[in-house]
Design brief:
With about 400 residues, the protein is an all-alpha fold. The protein has a domain at about 80-190. Helices cover about 70% and strands about 0% of the residues. It has 22 helices and no strands. Helix 11 (about 175-190) runs antiparallel to helix 12, helix 16 packs antiparallel against helix 17 and helix 18 (about 325-340) packs antiparallel against helix 19 (about 345-355). The radius of gyration is 21 Å and the shape is globular.
């Protein structure tokens, strides 16, 4: 028995539409999604793209996560990940209380090393390990930063808030992700680091990208670039600037602004030519490889799925590239393959996404949406297709 068709994204859109007493024609008019596309998505005959999901969410005034069915509560509970969310929330609440007299903190240097290890864990796809460790480290570093009152302490705390953001975003908790970013900005300002301030705007833009609010995402990217202009010239500044251009390219692509998207890609490519692979600079994985991967993403956002598949075919992913980025890339390639009718390659890329970072892939909306699209295609796929669906688990009604 297949796992996902009973409550796929299309059925949620239809349910939310009916709750608001909207016809398909009315929702198509409000969202700007063609009627034929909306009808196919609701029927499960076509997978919902991020653009369609974002447009419908805006039109019906709900969060994207509501349409996607996130968080995937049953699966999180089965993997014992749900119990890790509340401690993160509690750790984020004590930011302004000063030093905790009950905590004996280690040196800032030791805490910085641990914060860096957590960034590496997230990039390796070890979400559970990062989620387990980050609350206590935030609390300890909060005390250490308030006691030391030095830039390094605040910037280490900002790094841990960034890890909390990564965990929340990957597990489908947008409200917690936004709170984590607010705390990151608070700490970065105390650490007086313009580069980190620019990166904060980049991550903030990504949250609006996920919610389908592209105009705000573009404004935040521009604010981030302006903030970076205040930093001294360095490779670190170049890397974050390049990553901002990559983020801007995806935002523009999803907003159907092809000229802006390709302009940002060209600028990122120029910067990457100067920096080379800079994967460990703020763990952004910036460099020529990320430019190629983002070009695939942008083409897919522009509905140029055939070209996206061709670009992906020529892409060479280094073995030491972050597992999380590798998994995300294969998920996007799988989606592009599905839309061009390449069903077997689509499933092969889903398998690659799972192999690279299983914890991330399991909770990745693109993975689940693509699997549901393959399910709806009613074509013969390998026996392992069924076991993949069992691994994902059923999407619970939201």
């Amino acid at each position: 028995m297949h796992a996902l068709p009973q409550d796929h994204t299309g059925t949620r859109i239809a349910r939310l539409r009916r709750e608001r007493h909207l016809t398909q024609t009315a929702l198509a008019d409000l969202s700007g999604v063609p009627y034929s596309t909306l009808a196919k998505v609701e029927q499960g005959a076509a997978p919902a793209t991020p653009y369609v999901i974002g447009a419908c969410a805006r039109a019906m005034r709900v969060e994207v996560s509501t349409i996607q069915g996130q968080p995937y509560a049953e699966e999180l509970r089965a993997d014992e990940l749900d119990v890790l969310i509340r401690p993160i929330r509690e750790a984020l609440d004590v930011y302004d209380l000063g030093a905790d007299p009950d905590i004996r903190s280690r040196s800032i240097t030791a805490l910085t090393a641990e914060a860096d290890q957590l960034c590496a864990a997230v990039r390796a796809g070890e979400i559970k390990a990062a989620a387990s460790r980050v609350p206590s480290l935030i609390e300890e570093t909060t005390t250490a930063a308030h006691l030391a009152q030095v830039d390094e302490g605040w910037l280490t705390l900002a790094s841990l808030y960034r890890t909390a953001y990564d965990v929340a975003a990957k597990l489908g908790y947008p409200d917690l992700a936004q709170l984590s970013l607010a705390r990151m900005d608070w700490a970065a300002q105390r650490g007086s680091n313009a580069v980190l301030g620019g990166m904060f705007q980049y991550l903030r833009a990504l949250t609006y990208l996920r919610e389908g609010r592209y105009a705000i995402g573009t404004r935040l990217v521009n604010l981030g670039l302006a903030t970076l202009g205040q930093a001294e010239e360095s490779r670190e500044r170049q890397v974050v600037t390049g990553q901002l251009h990559l983020g801007a390219a995806v935002v523009a692509g999803r907003a159907r602004d092809e000229d802006a998207a390709k302009s940002h890609l060209r600028e990122a490519e120029r910067i990457a030519g100067q920096t080379g692979e800079a994967g460990k600079v703020h763990w952004l994985a910036f460099g020529p490889t990320n430019v190629v991967v983002h070009r695939v993403s942008v083409l897919a956002e522009l509905d140029e799925y055939g070209r996206a598949v061709e670009e992906a075919r020529d892409a060479v992913i280094p073995k030491d590239w972050p597992n999380s980025r590798t998994s995300h890339h294969y998920a996007e390639v799988a989606r592009a393959c599905l839309w061009t009718g390449r069903l077997e390659p689509a499933f092969e890329n889903l398998v690659k996404a799972r192999k690279a970072a299983p914890q991330q892939a399991k909770y990745h909306p693109t993975v689940r949406e693509t699997y549901a699209g393959l399910e709806a295609a009613h074509r013969r796929l390998p026996e392992s297709f069924l076991s993949y669906g069992s691994w994902l688990g059923p999407v619970a009604p939201h």
